[in-house]
């Protein structure tokens, strides 16, 4: 029996709803075919946006959506994507697969999509190949309500009122695809570009700097030393790959127990990276004015057989569901510094929550995790702890259980627990402090490690009711099945 303490009386910090954010890039079939099919498509749409996909996204309470990249952002010139569509530039997407980018989905379309879904837009600007003027004019085009060339151009393109966008990223992966820069050089460029990302009216831009990848702690140190007063947040990118190199990442669906545990071992490194980057930031920013935004995270495998290698299309299994549940629990635990995260990516790319094929759509196991965890949004993180034990194969050992707990505005406690063990159930004795348990309800996602949904069998992995809970004097007891993600809601007296 594993003892698990949840102390509701010890509220730590609010879990920002934007931790449950998403990412859409002009990559493969994420935008085109996934989100946007055009007004003339036979697939049911609203102003070109797929209705089935939008309805599914609204159901999981998407709080924020990042666009247009990714690596694509630092070669994207926003004026190519405005005005009459027949006049927009066509080009080859040199970053991702060599497909034709016709720019039919641009600023107006993206911001309209966000309005239809009901989420905040997060725009990533082009620092790598763009200019200060170009970035400054984009912000003016979206946010200025007055007499100016960009406000006039916006009105000519059919939008009189500004959008008043809040979240704006100044460059992407500038240590790599965004320019292969040194942190000292990027810091200076950031300061220059950020100066001209202006606030208009009462709207204040939340300025996001390109932060590190993985364990590049020097990038964080240099950036914080040189530019912290001019930023609201910096980014962190970390992808989970089970293979030993980027050239041999492994299959999304054909893997053994060792690859399963290796994947989870690697995804658990997110906690280490957040802890270490936060420690550097704490020394230079003890009041935590600068947030961490994990705006690219998730699994990255070899592409599905027969698909364009540059389109990054992969299937999604129970293993991915556990990766999602583990990371979201980790983000919750780091909510004092982590204020947004954006899984890569929303549709048809990498660890997608939705896959489409023509007019068909399926929800992946990862989708159901987001649906389940959405109850944490804007709750107060509470103190929770269990004695760690491990499971694995040979020298690959991971924590048995990964958890987080929060309390909502009505006083109910939301507990989410991932059981990483492939073969054994876990008996858990939950000890509750600060609340007397009156009523329990639960949901679970569980199946074999490689189970996944297909267009022929779309509900192999799905959310189900969970009832294996018994109220005790001090809380409750439960038995968690192997390879599972469970949400338990505790209502008190």
Q: What do you see in this structure?
A:
The relative contact order is 0.15. Helix content is 24%, strand content 29%. The strands form six sheets. The protein has a ten-stranded mixed sheet with strand order 23-22-26-20-19-16-1-21-25-24, with helices on one face. An eight-stranded parallel barrel has the order 2-5-8-9-10-11-12-13, surrounded by five helices. It has a two-stranded antiparallel ribbon with strand order 3-4. The radius of gyration is 22 Å and the shape is globular. α3 (132-143) crosses α4 and α5 runs parallel beside α6. The mean pLDDT is 96. The protein has 493 residues and is an alpha/beta fold.
List keywords for this structure.
493 residues; 10 helices; globular; alpha/beta; eight-stranded parallel barrel; single chain; 26 strands
Question: How is the secondary structure organized here?
Answer:
Blueprint: E1 2-14, E2 21-23, E3 45-46, E4 49-50, H1 51-59, E5 64-67, E6 91-92, E7 100-101, H2 107-117, E8 120-125, H3 132-143, H4 149-156, E9 167-170, H5 183-195, E10 206-209, H6 217-227, E11 233-240, H7 257-267, H8 269-284, E12 291-299, H9 318-333, E13 338-344, E14 354-357, E15 360-363, H10 365-373, E16 380-386, E17 390-393, E18 396-399, E19 401-407, E20 413-419, E21 426-433, E22 437-446, E23 464-465, E24 469-471, E25 475-480, E26 484-492
Parallel strand pairs: 1-21, 2-5, 2-13, 5-8, 8-9, 9-10, 10-11, 11-12, 12-13
Antiparallel strand pairs: 1-16, 3-4, 6-7, 14-15, 16-19, 17-18, 19-20, 20-26, 21-25, 22-23, 22-26, 24-25
């Amino acid at each position: 029996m594993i003892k698990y303490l949840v102390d509701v009386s010890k509220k730590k910090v609010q879990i920002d709803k934007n931790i449950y954010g998403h990412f859409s890039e002009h990559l493969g079939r994420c935008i085109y075919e996934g989100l946007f099919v055009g007004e003339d498509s036979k697939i049911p749409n609203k102003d070109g946006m797929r209705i089935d996909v939008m309805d599914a996204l609204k159901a999981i309470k998407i709080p924020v959506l990042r666009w247009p990249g990714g690596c694509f952002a630092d070669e994207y010139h926003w004026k190519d994507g405005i005005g009459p569509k027949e006049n927009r530039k066509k080009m080859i997407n040199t970053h991702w697969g060599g497909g034709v980018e016709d720019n039919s989905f641009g600023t107006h379309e993206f911001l309209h999509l966000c309005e239809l879904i009901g989420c905040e837009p997060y725009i990533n600007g082009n620092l790598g190949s763009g200019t200060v003027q170009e970035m400054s004019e984009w912000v003016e085009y979206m946010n200025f309500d007055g007499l100016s060339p960009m406000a006039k151009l916006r009105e000519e393109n059919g939008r009189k009122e500004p959008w008043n966008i809040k979240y704006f990223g100044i460059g992407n992966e500038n240590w790599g695809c965004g320019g292969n820069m040194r942190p000292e050089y990027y810091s200076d460029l950031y300061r220059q570009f950020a100066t001209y990302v202006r606030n208009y009216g009462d709207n204040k831009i939340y300025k996001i700097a390109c932060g590190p990848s993985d364990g590049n702690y020097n990038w964080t140190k240099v950036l914080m030393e040189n530019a912290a007063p001019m930023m609201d947040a910096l980014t962190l990118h970390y992808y989970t790959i089970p293979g030993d190199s980027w050239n041999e990442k492994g299959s999304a669906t054909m893997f053994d127990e060792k690859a399963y545990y290796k994947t989870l071992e690697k995804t658990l490194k997110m906690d280490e990276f957040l802890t270490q980057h936060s420690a550097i930031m704490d020394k230079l920013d003890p009041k935590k004015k600068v947030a961490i935004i994990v705006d690219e995270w998730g699994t990255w495998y070899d592409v599905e057989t027969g698909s364009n290698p540059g389109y990054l299309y992969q299937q999604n299994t129970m293993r991915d569901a556990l990766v999602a549940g583990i990371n979201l629990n980790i983000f919750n635990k780091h909510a004092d510094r982590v204020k947004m995260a954006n899984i890569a990516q929303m549709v048809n790319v990498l660890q997608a929550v939705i896959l489409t094929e023509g007019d068909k759509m399926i929800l992946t196991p990862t989708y159901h995790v987001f649906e389940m965890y959405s109850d944490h949004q804007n709750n107060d993180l509470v103190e929770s702890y269990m004695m760690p034990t491990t499971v694995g194969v040979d020298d690959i050992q991971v924590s048995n259980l990964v958890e987080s707990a929060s309390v909502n505005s009505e006083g109910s406690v939301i507990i989410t627990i991932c059981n990483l063990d492939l073969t054994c159930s876990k008996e858990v004795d939950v000890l509750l402090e600060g609340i007397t348990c009156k009523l329990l309800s639960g949901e679970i996602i569980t199946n074999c490690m490689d189970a996944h949904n297909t267009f022929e069998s779309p509900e192999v992995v799905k959310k189900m009711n969970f009832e294996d809970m018994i109220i005790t004097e001090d809380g409750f007891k439960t038995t968690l099945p192997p390879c599972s993600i469970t949400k338990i809601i505790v209502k008190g007296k």
